[in-house]
Amino acid sequence: MGVEVRTESITKSFGSQRIWQDVSLTLPPGEVSALLGPSGTGKSVFLKSLIGLLRPERGSIYIDGTDITTCSNKELYEIRKLFGVLFQDGALFGSMNLYDNVAFPLREHTKKSESDIKKIVMEKLELTGLLGAEGKLPGEISGGMRKRAGLARALVLDPQIILVDEPDSGLDPVRTTYLSQLLIDINAQIDATILIVTHNINLARIVPDNIGMLFRRQLVMFGPREVLLTSEEPVVKQFLNGRMQGPIGMSEEKDEAQMAREQAMFDSGHSDGGAEEVEGIIPQMKAQPGMPVRQAVFRRRERVRQVLHTLPPAAQEAIRESLESNGDADTQVIPAYQGTYDTTVRQNLTNG
């Protein structure tokens, strides 16, 4: 099972520029979480801080109980073995074929034989739909294949924590859905703690168990998907519906005069062209048939029930309806995604 990742009041700056401050959150072990926010809010900086590539000026980051901001380099090296990271561009070595790219961490960090390495590499390539492409160079394949090769490499050391930076970057919506389904399936199989950094609204609505929102150098909210999807917090509601109306502007936060003008336009019936607002809580993507039932769902729902009484009445009603209607649905696939990621389709993705 994945391990807990916890930050306590961490602050990060580059020179005089404050990126974010006093960020405290806990990624529940074995669950899929997403960190959202407009472009430039420091989401990728946060991800890099979790693995010690960047160090905050203040605060603590606990990985399975160890504070990586104060531990020794040797301890940090061992802790990093808990992680698998999928960077935006896959971060593949251009001179290596896909097989050698995926095998690289095993050769670098283990003493496994080449026969054992081959078994593991081919297993991960099959998992990500890349069998038959192992001899190709990164420059010879599509962006979607590079992304999946990066994920295969991130999985070869059987990580307990998987960090995914902008999985939709460079991908069309269909292949973003395939990759999202793959992350859900992986969580079902190995119960890893997964953090997805994204600004993709659709992904945020249907994939994670927990959602966090960065804005104006602060963590606005972090919690179970049911709580965020019913939130009346202006920034969260605006972002999850892709609306112009709200605190988020083109380059930064809006002033009061601009917000008043936009509210007047909205009150007069003018549409701001955002995503269609969904009544109730949109169903979460399920693991495909044949996969183990995702235990994360039951853990998350138990936490939601514990805080339900603290939420506004409208949110309570929507969440109760969602919990009741989906109570036994976790062994099923959402109809819209049924068959989305069966083996046949996965093999057809080899060229995409």
Protein model, in words:
It is a single chain. With 352 residues, this protein is of the alpha/beta class. 39% of the residues lie in helices and 17% in strands. The chain has 13 helices and 10 strands. Strands 6-7-8-3-9-10 form a 6-stranded mixed beta sheet. Strands 2-1-4-5 form a 4-stranded antiparallel beta sheet, with helices on one face. α3 packs parallel to α5 and α4 packs across α5. 39% of the residues are buried.
Order of helices and strands: EEEHEEHEHHHEHEHEEHHHHHH
The strand order across the widest sheet is: 6-7-8-3-9-10
Low-confidence stretches: 328-351
Mean pLDDT: 84
> What is the count of DSSP helices, taking H or I runs of 4+ residues?
13
Question: What is the C-alpha radius of gyration, as a whole number of Å?
Answer: 21 Å
Structural class: alpha/beta
State the major sheet.
6 strands, mixed
Basic shape:
globular
Approximate helicity band: 25-40%
What is the β-strand count? Answer: 10
Report how far the terminal alpha carbons are from each other: 32 Å
Q: What percentage of the residues does DSSP assign to strands (E)?
A: 15-25%
